[in-house]
Write a structure and sequence with these properties.
Layout lengths: L19 H10 L4 E2 H8 L3 H14 L2 E7 L5 E8 L3
Antiparallel strand pairs: 1-3, 2-3
Helix pairs in contact: 1-2
């Protein structure tokens, strides 16, 4: 019995998928910003990972993240400023 192998097909993707960091950055750039829950849903990260990304990675890249409570009592985060490199 011989094994047959199928040639691997490479799918040409016209749209490059966003990294999880890019997904969070896009959410924070919205006028309404994003809650921890929204960022968790978008990235499949746990809450502590989202907060770590906000405090660590974005800060290292020169971004400032502000937060405030909305009318429903949910804390929303958004980009305050971005430092040009």
């Amino acid at each position: 019995m011989s094994k047959t192998t199928k040639p691997k097909s490479k799918k040409a993707s016209s749209v490059k998928s966003k990294t999880k960091a890019e997904q969070v950055f896009s959410l924070l750039a919205r006028p309404a910003g994003a809650s921890i829950a929204e960022m968790m849903k978008s990235t499949s990260w746990q809450a502590h990972s989202v907060r770590g990304f906000l405090a660590g990675s974005l800060k290292k890249k020169g971004h400032t993240v502000s937060s405030e409570l909305d009318q429903g009592g949910v804390r929303r985060y958004r980009l305050a400023t971005a430092v040009e490199a």
